[in-house]
């Protein structure tokens, strides 16, 4: 913690790179958690594919509507809330997230790049144009249900969630912004990501190659940690407020 605080004190720009672990304490399950209820017999990694949508659009659309519903009932936790506080304390702060929830924005972060898209958007499966959803089309029961997706107003094909699925490319503008931020930062703080899904998982290596220091915050050791890397083991909602306190960034942050 002391070493991480020293590195931060010598830096001006911080990029936070977040994964599902940062939202776990807000009650959003990570990708390695087992699904429950209606979804128990499904593998989330299989549901997040164009093939699954082609095979059963109502299952996949229902699953994403249910996740959107889950996120809208969740609140940002201390880890999300800490990030804009680093900005208040004088650092230049940006967020690159693999998460499709909007908890960073709701915690007050202004500069958030979503490299895997967002649960809040929809687009046409065929013509890719964005689609608007009415409140009626967003309604879903507590435990979730299969729901036939609405149709695109331009080509009448099905709308799909505005997220990046396995085997799909990331949105080019988001990826370009992410690379620019990573190459220009002094410190990258990687929070709650297993680092297994490329190319986003390569972001810490990209930061190291550009001369930045990398701080990992995770419940578990995240592989080999080199000379310019620091591992802060623990839950993000505890470790980030401690780090903020250690650099003199004001009172303790709680959700
Ligand atoms: N605090 C810190 N770390 C945590 C916490 C917590 N409270 N809870 C879990 N973690 C860590 C886990 O130890 C794990 O390393 O968060 C990580 C979550 O890993 P994943 O579920 O694999 O999430 P992520 O890395 O975001 O996945 C990347 O995979 O399925 C795709 O597109 C999806 O964006 C996602 C990508």
From TrEMBL:
<keyword id="KW-0479">Metal-binding</keyword>
<dbReference type="InterPro" id="IPR003000">
    <property type="entry name" value="Sirtuin"/>
</dbReference>
<feature type="binding site">
    <location>
        <begin position="98"/>
        <end position="101"/>
    </location>
    <ligand>
        <name>NAD(+)</name>
    </ligand>
</feature>
<feature type="binding site">
    <location>
        <position position="124"/>
    </location>
    <ligand>
        <name>Zn(2+)</name>
    </ligand>
</feature>
<dbReference type="InterPro" id="IPR026591">
    <property type="entry name" value="Sirtuin_cat_small_dom_sf"/>
</dbReference>
<keyword id="KW-0862">Zinc</keyword>
<feature type="binding site">
    <location>
        <begin position="192"/>
        <end position="194"/>
    </location>
    <ligand>
        <name>NAD(+)</name>
    </ligand>
</feature>
<feature type="binding site">
    <location>
        <position position="67"/>
    </location>
    <ligand>
        <name>substrate</name>
    </ligand>
</feature>
<feature type="binding site">
    <location>
        <position position="152"/>
    </location>
    <ligand>
        <name>Zn(2+)</name>
    </ligand>
</feature>
<dbReference type="InterPro" id="IPR029035">
    <property type="entry name" value="DHS-like_NAD/FAD-binding_dom"/>
</dbReference>
<feature type="binding site">
    <location>
        <begin position="218"/>
        <end position="220"/>
    </location>
    <ligand>
        <name>NAD(+)</name>
    </ligand>
</feature>
<feature type="binding site">
    <location>
        <position position="127"/>
    </location>
    <ligand>
        <name>Zn(2+)</name>
    </ligand>
</feature>
<feature type="domain" description="Deacetylase sirtuin-type">
    <location>
        <begin position="1"/>
        <end position="255"/>
    </location>
</feature>
<dbReference type="InterPro" id="IPR050134">
    <property type="entry name" value="NAD-dep_sirtuin_deacylases"/>
</dbReference>
<keyword id="KW-0808">Transferase</keyword>
<feature type="active site" description="Proton acceptor">
    <location>
        <position position="116"/>
    </location>
</feature>
<feature type="binding site">
    <location>
        <position position="155"/>
    </location>
    <ligand>
        <name>Zn(2+)</name>
    </ligand>
</feature>
<comment type="function">
    <text>NAD-dependent lysine deacetylase and desuccinylase that specifically removes acetyl and succinyl groups on target proteins. Modulates the activities of several proteins which are inactive in their acylated form.</text>
</comment>
<protein>
    <recommendedName>
        <fullName>NAD-dependent protein deacylase</fullName>
        <ecNumber>2.3.1.286</ecNumber>
    </recommendedName>
</protein>
<dbReference type="Pfam" id="PF02146">
    <property type="entry name" value="SIR2"/>
</dbReference>
<feature type="binding site">
    <location>
        <position position="236"/>
    </location>
    <ligand>
        <name>NAD(+)</name>
    </ligand>
</feature>
<dbReference type="InterPro" id="IPR027546">
    <property type="entry name" value="Sirtuin_class_III"/>
</dbReference>
<dbReference type="InterPro" id="IPR026590">
    <property type="entry name" value="Ssirtuin_cat_dom"/>
</dbReference>
<feature type="binding site">
    <location>
        <position position="64"/>
    </location>
    <ligand>
        <name>substrate</name>
    </ligand>
</feature>
<comment type="similarity">
    <text>Belongs to the sirtuin family. Class III subfamily.</text>
</comment>
<keyword id="KW-0963">Cytoplasm</keyword>
<keyword id="KW-0520">NAD</keyword>
């Amino acid at each position: 913690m002391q070493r991480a605080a020293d590195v931060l004190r010598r830096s001006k720009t911080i990029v936070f790179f977040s994964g599902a672990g940062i939202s776990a304490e807000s009650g959003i399950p990570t990708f390695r958690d087992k699904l429950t209820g209606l979804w128990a017999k499904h593998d989330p990694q299989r549901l997040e594919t164009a093939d699954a949508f082609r095979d059963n659009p109502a299952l996949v659309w229902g699953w994403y509507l249910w996740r959107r519903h889950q996120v809208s009932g969740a609140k940002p936790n201390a880890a999300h809330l800490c990030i804009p506080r680093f900005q208040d304390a004088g650092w230049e702060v940006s967020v690159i997230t693999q998460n499709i929830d909007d908890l960073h924005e709701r915690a007050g972060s202004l500069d958030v790049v979503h490299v895997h898209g967002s649960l809040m958007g929809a687009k046409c499966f065929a013509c890719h144009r964005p689609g608007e959803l009415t409140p009626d089309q967003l309604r879903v029961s507590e435990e979730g249900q299969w729901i036939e997706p609405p149709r695109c107003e331009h080509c009448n094909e099905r709308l799909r969630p505005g997220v990046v699925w396995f085997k799909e490319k990331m949105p080019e503008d988001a990826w370009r912004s992410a690379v620019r931020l990573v190459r220009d930062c002094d410190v990258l703080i990687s929070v709650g990501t297993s680092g297994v899904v490329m190319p986003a998982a390569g972001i810490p290596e990209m930061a190291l190659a550009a001369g930045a220091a990398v701080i990992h915050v995770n419940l578990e050791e995240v592989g080999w940690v080199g000379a310019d890397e620091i591992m802060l083991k623990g839950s993000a909602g505890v470790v980030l407020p401690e780090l903020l306190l250690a650099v003199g960034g004001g009172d303790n942050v709680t959700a």
